[in-house]
């Protein structure tokens, strides 16, 4: 009954009263409908003196009831403060001017009502006067001294300062919400005032009861009912936070009572009844909880469920659904542990059935409550996760039941839900549980498995929706364990194999290793063949083991090291049975540390490299071979390897050997460990995309391979003799060193260039050369032999350089079964280091040619000599001579300083129709200096204990010093002295330091030899001698007198500025270098033009004109010159040009003969004196002095 009363008092009561005639009229129904339309009340702000903040009630349900509604006024059980009206309203309906009617009838009715309602505690009252809207518009007569009815009501009943009377002008025809605004505010104020006073009184009662807690006769159940009435009151006015606080405080008080072990107000811990294990946990109507509390007979089990249910209801009202799931899960786990202490007195599996049923019912309640709210984003994920935890809790109870009845094995993951220290007790109860599903699952294994799978799948679904992948995958593992137990090996193996891939990205190593171990165990139980799939599973397991040193390996009942050792042995056996090699990348079980410097083998071609191999497995690993690959520039690779038998646990020092490695600095590219047909491979050089996306910058491992001077070597270069115009070739020099070569294959490739090895030819025919598949084959070449040959190739004029990949494969006499292979990249410049420009000057029968030689790069070039020569056999009547002095010496061409060579060609028979050749002997300054350094170091190393080792170091140190400081270049070019700058000697031994000092002394004393020594390169450039149809020699001569034809002599009269000077212009014509040489009939029309020198000379006479030119003829023109100022003046120059030849056409236009004019007087100057005379100047000296 108490529960029914509590549920019916969920809203505020407001009573109404009026004259019986009004309440029975039809108009009252209209008024009641208008008042009901104003409800519920909204936006109510409650400021209580006992609370620090204002409480806002968004919406308050109000129930209008007649004042005389029957209520139980004498109950001693406090249910809620809302069981009585908080506000009483008396409604007056009369004309505002009917004062007489008010005085005789209405006033007494109001007074009787007022005396009744004011006698009630914690209730407010309000008088509502309703008039027609047109009544308020009427004004009283001037002589009418009586007041209005509303004013009489206010005067008679407003005894306090508070206004309790409201007048509303309303009619059904003009119903508007605005007319009720004042009434609504008065109702809000009245309700809040009454509620505040009622709450204050009840809180005082609660405090008084709590303060008597230690006194005899105090009862917790009575205190609970009293305080709960506050919670119900707050809930009735939609103050759910305050209501929840009351239950929170009640829970805290219960814990205090529990701690004091004073539970005399309760019954037993639990009094199991039929349906307790399967009833909905959060239902407050399944039992008469309040009656049990009032009777002091409620069990702790029922009391805690009722308290939880009320808390969850209030949480649901506030939309905090997530907290409901977590609170219920925590309660089930905690109280379930208490019930297990008395499990022997309960029906068998009562605790499991109760937790299972309660968890599922809470999920259903949460879904129902959540449908009234909009949950999204992170809150939705949290909500689904909480439901997943409840469903997993329910599934856990099935683990306990299944293990107990024998449906599940006593091993993980099923046994992990059972407490090994507290096994299920022997039940003494004769009762049974009521959950039909559990009862069926106990006796029927198939029903149990179906129930188990369904519960697990529901939990997985919730975890997946919540984004909790780890929890979902863990439950997948339990399903795989169930399949394994039921004999569904194929399904279990597929699940166990697929799960680790989901764990690895999240670093869930323990789960990953456990699932992999279960997959391996399932594979054994299933008796499957240990194929590549099994090997991959095992390798993944070993990876997870090594990553955490086995600390997170979940293995039960077996030693970890013994378990891993057995797996590794099986791995080696399975690898030996594979049909093909199986590569596995980047496995952490083995790692390598490589030395940064390789060592020359000394007695044979090849290098040794020290490596440290770390076996992180806890056992010996049987292996066959270990190898690493170093990557150099472009496609250069070298492979170091060593055979193995076993790889001990921990670190092992090994020495790897590479039979052929070109000297360079390499990057550790990859490494490989062979275990039968299984290949462990590691890539040490990451791709640029991976390196840029990595948070930590990867450091490449560099390995330096020293140069072995006695090993086979292949050098590529331009030929020492280059002749332009012929097919290009490249010089290949193969040095055998210490090796007697049985057979060597050399293959050249380059992008954009085609080599023609079939046309290759030896420089010295001392050895045989054969071409097979574009590879040049050399056979039976003794040691210390250099075999050089020329290989023609396609045109490379479009390239500045060729990048040539040289592949060499060879066998030696000492190791005929070992085939060595080298792949080297060489860059050979195709452009010549020098460029040649020519400038020609025609002088009669002679042609002067000036060749300017410049460097095409930043390097200096040493020029030994340059010769201009005719073709073999010479040319008749042609004489070629250099114009420079003999013994000119070696010259250096720098980027800023070219070198000029001048030759003259004297032809007796006209133009030279055959091409000449310009031969230049040169070498690079670097080549010359390196040659000098090599000779000096050879002399210094005579008698040294290890000349080959020291030679490379000393030469490199000297070259590096010269490269870093170019101050020695100028002095070397003049004297030949090589003043080597100081070199850092921290990284060399004492003997090398002494050798460096000796070499520097000898280099400092070096002089250029005469004649020059060493090898020189030659370039032969064809030179075409140009044609010139007309060669004109112009000459301007000063005549002694205007009427003389004789040129001026040294004793001639002086020349003065402004004086007319007679001169003669002569133009001598020669066709010697043209195509018409010797043709006496040939004529050309020429035009001369004397240069205008307006600052120096005035030219008078025919200074421009045309004339007909013949071979050997001279054209003479008299002119007069006037010097404009005195001084040494150059005579005017004369330009001679050819005019188009009539009747001859070239490319559609009239032919124009070529012509060159040179000034015979070009270097001459004449002295012009200032004009002489007398000038008189009158200077005033002044007449007064002081």
TrEMBL record:
<dbReference type="GO" id="GO:0005829">
    <property type="term" value="C:cytosol"/>
</dbReference>
<feature type="domain" description="DUF7077">
    <location>
        <begin position="711"/>
        <end position="815"/>
    </location>
</feature>
<dbReference type="GO" id="GO:1990071">
    <property type="term" value="C:TRAPPII protein complex"/>
</dbReference>
<keyword id="KW-0333">Golgi apparatus</keyword>
<dbReference type="Pfam" id="PF23036">
    <property type="entry name" value="TRAPPC10_1st"/>
</dbReference>
<keyword id="KW-0813">Transport</keyword>
<feature type="domain" description="TRAPPC10/Trs130 C-terminal">
    <location>
        <begin position="1022"/>
        <end position="1169"/>
    </location>
</feature>
<dbReference type="InterPro" id="IPR045126">
    <property type="entry name" value="TRAPPC10/Trs130"/>
</dbReference>
<protein>
    <recommendedName>
        <fullName>Trafficking protein particle complex subunit 10</fullName>
    </recommendedName>
</protein>
<dbReference type="Pfam" id="PF23274">
    <property type="entry name" value="DUF7077"/>
</dbReference>
<dbReference type="GO" id="GO:0034498">
    <property type="term" value="P:early endosome to Golgi transport"/>
</dbReference>
<dbReference type="GO" id="GO:0006891">
    <property type="term" value="P:intra-Golgi vesicle-mediated transport"/>
</dbReference>
<dbReference type="InterPro" id="IPR055505">
    <property type="entry name" value="DUF7077"/>
</dbReference>
<dbReference type="Pfam" id="PF12584">
    <property type="entry name" value="TRAPPC10"/>
</dbReference>
<dbReference type="InterPro" id="IPR056913">
    <property type="entry name" value="TRAPPC10/Trs130_N"/>
</dbReference>
<dbReference type="InterPro" id="IPR022233">
    <property type="entry name" value="TRAPPC10/Trs130_C"/>
</dbReference>
<feature type="domain" description="TRAPPC10/Trs130 N-terminal">
    <location>
        <begin position="26"/>
        <end position="324"/>
    </location>
</feature>
